[in-house]
Amino acid sequence: MEDEKIIALFFQRDTDAINQLEAKHGKSIYRTAHNILGSAQDAEECANDTYLAAWNTIPPQSPAPLVSYVCRIARNLAIGRLHANTAKKRNTYYDAALDELEESIPSLETVETEYDAKELSKSISDFLGTLSYDERFMFMRRYWYADSVTAIGQMMGLSAHKVSVKLFRVRERLERQLSKEGMLT
Amino acid sequence: MKRELISQALSDIDDKYISESIKYRPAKSGGNTKIVRRIVVLAAVVALLMALGATAYAKGWLGLSPLVVPTETPFVIHGEEHQTISISQPQAVPEDLPEVNELAENNKQAWQEFQDRIAQLPETLEYNQLQDLLYSYDGKDNWKTEFEDNGDGTITVSYNRLPDDFDPSTWNPTIDVEYVLYGTKDISTEDYERFGELVRQRTSYQCEYDFHYWLYNDEEKAILEDVAANYGLNLRKEGTYAYWDQNGKYSGNGFYSNTELVDMTSAFCKGNIFYSTPRGL
Question: What is the C-alpha separation between A178 and A184, in angstroms, rounded?
Answer without folding.
Answer: 6
